[in-house]
Amino acid sequence: MGKSVVDELNQFLEGNLMAVHAYEDYIEHMQDPGIKQILQGLQQRHKQHATQVAERIQNLGGVPVNDVGMKAKMVEFMKNFKGTALGTEEILKDAAAGEQRGIEASKTILQNDLDPESLQLVKNILSHDEKHIEQLHTLIQQNN
Predict the structure, then answer these.
(1) Is 13 in contact with 122 (CB distance < 8 Å)?
(2) What is the pLDDT of residues 87-115, one digit of tens each?
(3) 10 in Cβ contact with 57 (< 8 Å)
């Protein structure tokens, strides 16, 4: 496989790692134990997705990125969240918006030349991410 496929998958992996860290912050600030548990489940799925992508990168002969190289991005990403009120609704809305941003950014990978197995992996993960948004929107409606 070409280096570009590994590079694209690493970009996708980086996005999943960013989501893991964002959920860490949401979980830390969530007061409602039931919603905290749901957020932990969403975070766990992002961790699973990151593992799947990392394994695919390795199977292609590449080296997966890790979160050490993205500290600067995380600081910028988290700055936006920490400046807001930390109520349940705000956390849920921010999580849903973050998932949506991640999906939109990831869709550019689908436009590139991924091999069929990598393309299917990315599509499956994005499908799960869309379900995360639906779940978050349901929680937002329940908390209004």
Answers:
(1) no
(2) 899 999 999 999 999 899 888 877 777 89
(3) yes
Task: Report the predicted TM-score, pTM, of the whole model to 2 decimal places.
Answer: 0.85
**What backbone torsions phi and psi does residue 27 show, to the nearest 5 degrees?**
-65, -40
> Contact 18/102 with Cβ under 8 angstroms?
yes
**Per-residue 3-state assignment (H helix, E strand, C coil) for the chain:** CCHHHHHHHHHHHHHHHHHHHHHHHHHHHCCCHHHHHHHHHHHHHHHHHHHHHHHHHHHCCCCCCCHHHHHHHHHHHHHHHHCCCCCHHHHHHHHHHHHHHHHHHHHHHHCCCCCHHHHHHHHHHHHHHHHHHHHHHHHHHHCC
pLDDT attached to residue 26: 93
CB 112 within 8 A of CB 8: yes
Collect contacts of 25-34 with beta carbons under 8 A, ≥24 apart: 25/78, 25/81, 25/82, 26/81, 26/91, 26/94, 26/95, 29/86, 29/91, 30/88, 30/91, 31/88, 32/88
